[in-house]
């Protein structure tokens, strides 16, 4: 059995036709897991008065900072302002990531939060 954090050891065919849970639920999974591994977590609760495109989560632990854009699924594209933030953060040598439910179920998120 695969015991990696966030790995889904059994794929139920019934879940393949259901829509992905909301991004808000993914955020809560990431936040809970990040805190479990000692990360400080920031997100903007109500972004309507904030500049567009800022990443959904900022995670800080020791000497690591993760800037995370969350999307429900792999088909959700970044808006222009989100892409600008991603490009600038990466150009500045920052660790920017785009995570989806696929990232969660594959264990990618759990591995990143354990390691970084």
Q: Would you write up a description of this structure?
A:
With 116 residues, this protein is of the alpha+beta class. It has a single domain, classed as Trna Endonuclease, Chain: A, domain 1, CATH 3.40.1350.10. Helix content is 34%, strand content 17%. The chain has 4 helices and 4 strands. It has helices at residues 23-36, 80-91, 101-106, 108-115; strands at 40-42, 57-61, 64-70, 95-99. A 4-stranded mixed beta sheet has the order 1-2-3-4, sandwiched between helices. The two termini are 25 Å apart. The model has no long low-confidence stretch (mean pLDDT 87).
List keywords for this structure.
116 residues; alpha+beta; Trna Endonuclease, Chain: A, domain 1; four-stranded mixed sheet
Task: Give the number of domains.
Answer: 1
- Tell me the span between the first and last alpha carbons: 25 Å
Strand/helix succession: HEEEHEHH
Radius of gyration: 15 Å
CATH topology: Trna Endonuclease, Chain: A, domain 1
Task: Report the uncertain regions.
Answer: none
**Overall CATH class:** Alpha Beta
Structural class from helices and strands?
alpha+beta
